Amino acid sequence: MVQIDAGHFSLNASVELSEALAKPASYKLMYFQMLSNGATGRDLLAFGGVDWSSVAPANWNAEKGQTPFHLMPLLFITGENGKTATLAETVVIEYYLAKKFGLLGTNEYEESVIKMLHSSSAAVQNAFAGAVTWNAPEAKAGGLGFFTTATLPTWIATHERHLNDNGNNGHYLGDKLSLADIRTANAIEHFATQPESAALMAIVNKSLPLIKLRETVAKHPKMVQWRSGNEYKGYYEGNIAFFADPFAFMS
User: Fold this and answer.
1) Whether residue 208 sits in one domain with residue 114
2) Which of 100, 126, 154 is the last residue of a domain?
3) Can you give the residue range of the structural domain that contains 131?
4) DSSP character string of 39-63
5) For helices 90-100 and 179-192, angle between their N-to-C axes, nearest 10 degrees
6) Residue 5's closest CA among 97, 94, 81, 84?
7) pLDDT for 107
8) Which residues form the GST N-terminal domain (predicted)?
9) CA 42 to CA 35: how far, in whole Å?
10) pLDDT at 189
């Protein structure tokens, strides 16, 4: 458990902190003991083969005011110069790490395509949270119905098109892993750990391109090493436990 002290940006130390971001020595990713919005960041750090750890806040309800936006994940980057920079917001963290580890393509256009695909997969996961996870109990069935008949099929159809355009080889661009591959795979893992997983995965599993992508990410040697460990398995089980009753967890 780690105490948080990151409620303010350190603009008077921007030069030193920029150097820390440019030449990192170690990383700490702070999030709850589950996958959700911490999953892709951890996957990226595992892929990068760097010195990193995953930590949880000592007392989130008491300390969230010490974060930039009262939210996690947070990424603490300690540079070779000994200074520690803090990044907040999931997308900022994931773009930073993906760029560090060569997962944003080979040119500016490829980077933009990867970011668009990443944004789409993050959006469908957020749409599920709004329609189902954080909906009032009496409205969950209606939210799930709309999500499974409209939102999810549309997302699947569009992503199938882009995967087929690349030859349906388990990647969106070429034959190399990208941030978009990892983010989409984690959206699927998120659906697979929900109480509504049977309804969600019955739809997802009909998409051969998306299942191919999920399997391709999972079979990458660095992902195998990370996801076969007890730490990752604990986060996976934590996802199941949390989303079984998220309101109870947050009370």
Assistant:
1) yes
2) 100
3) 108-219
4) HHHHHHHHHHT-SEEEE-BS-HHHH
5) 130
6) 84
7) 98
8) 25-105
9) 9
10) 98
Query: What tokens appear for 77 in the block?
Result: 């980057």
Predicted structure pTM score: 0.96
Q: Which helix (H) or strand (E) holds 30?
A: strand 24-30
- What gap in Å lies between CA 83 and CA 26, rounded to an integer? 11
228 in a domain, yes or no? Answer: no
Last-in-domain residue among 43, 77, 100: 100
Max intra-chain CA distance, the chain: 54
Length of the chain: 251
Token pair recorded at residue 132: 């189902």
> What is the distance of C-alpha 69 from the center of its chain?
18
Residue 224, Cβ density class (10 Å: 0-12 exposed, 13-18 middle, ≥19 buried): exposed
- pLDDT below 50 — which residues of the chain? none
Q: Are 1 and 57 in contact (CB under 8 A)?
A: yes
| Exposure letters 148-184 (e unless 16+ CB within 10 A, then b) | beebbeebbeebbebbeeeeeebbbbeeebbbbbbbb
